[in-house]
Each structure stands twice: as C-alpha cells, then as structure tokens.
C-alpha cells in the first residue's frame, strides 16, 4: 500500500511535465485521465484509512482534511479547465500548486512531514537575516541609481543603464548569484574604472557575508528543530 501510494503521488506530481505549458506536451485527455486515476487512488486510500480509524480521530486529523480539500480543489479545477477548453477559452491549472499536499499529508510520509515541519519552524527565525539582506540590497540599489542614473550610460544592447530603480534592484539581486557578472558592471567600468569599487563592495557585503550568514542561520536552526523533533538525537 505504501509503495502504491508513493507511486501515484509521484505520477501526479510528474503531470506538470506533460501539461501545458509542458516540456513534453501530451493531449489534455491523457493527462486528465491520469490525474483522475491518481485522485481516485488517493480517495480510496483515505477511505481505507477512515475504515480502520475511529471517526472522531479521523475527522480531528488535519492531514485527512487537507487531503480531502486538495482532492476537491483538483477535481473542481480540472472540470472548469475542461469546460473552458471546449469553448476555446485560455486558462491555467491553478490547482497544481496543491499537489505537494498529497506528498506531505499521507500517513506514509512521516519523514517528509518531519522535514517540512522543521523547515516551517525555521522560517520565522531567518526572517531577520533576510530583512537585513533586503535592506542592504535596496540601499545599494539606491546608491547605484544616484551614481549611474544621471550619467546617461547605456548597456551593450543600447538600453538605458541603471535608470529604473526596480530594474536596478533585480539586476543587483541577480549579481548576488554572480550570474550576470561582470556584464552588469561593464558600462560603469568603461565610464570609469573607479566604479568597479562599488560592485566589489556589493559582492563582498551581499554575496560573501550575507549569503554565508544566511546559510549558517538556516543550517543551525534547521538542525536544532530536527534534533528537538527526534528527541535530542544527534543530527550531524
């Protein structure tokens, strides 16, 4: 039963690869029939669990309620999407975001549920580091706007360079990953090599300091919650 449940959960999650917009598109009828089959299996597993569980215990378990709600939402969305396709109305399958609920909330997924709970408990404690990082990113973006916005610089494509504040925030956010380095700094560097100091300072503060600090806080808090959850067992 556990193997079958995991198989159909994996099959249900894999449908995202074949549904529009898809990597390997399949006809809507095929993907919808597979999804209905998966939902029927999930409903059958839930019904089986209800037969061997006291009624008041079953209905007080939020995991069972989450699975029932996810099944109803998926069927409703599938029906609406199918009707809209008949009338050539373009829409999206918004219920796909609830599919991981099946992976987390079935009784067989105890270990996954523990990991998810640890992640959930860790999030509030990393909020302060994340807010500090965002504050640093916004301040550097404002400095970039003041430094380069009035220089009438252009990118290699001939577009205005660092003129829009929101675009600057996005470009510097990408620079934290070094994905657009050194392209993002070349127009400023060509204007004056001294401007490279701004980008060097940004990378040191945000990529090397804040990202290391963020990773350390996430790791330590996740390990702490996981250790508490397993009753003090060493999680290293």
From TrEMBL:
Keywords tagged on the record: Membrane, Signal, Transmembrane, Transmembrane helix
* Stored Gene3D superfamilies: 1.10.287.70
Where is it localised?
A: Membrane
Question: Which SUPFAM superfamilies does this one have?
Answer: Voltage-gated potassium channels
Q: Residue span of the signal peptide, if any?
A: 1-16
Report the membrane topology from the UniProt record: Multi-pass membrane protein
Q: Which residues cross the membrane?
A: 26-44, 65-84, 126-145, 165-182, 194-219
All copies of domain Ion transport, residue ranges: 4-224
Among its keywords, does the record have Transmembrane helix? yes
Q: Which GO terms describe its molecular function?
A: monoatomic ion channel activity
InterPro entries according to UniProt:
Ion_trans_dom
Query: Does RNA-binding count among this protein's keywords?
Result: no
The record, for PANTHER family, names:
TWO PORE CHANNEL 3, TWO-PORE CALCIUM CHANNEL 3
The protein's name in its UniProt record: TPC2 protein
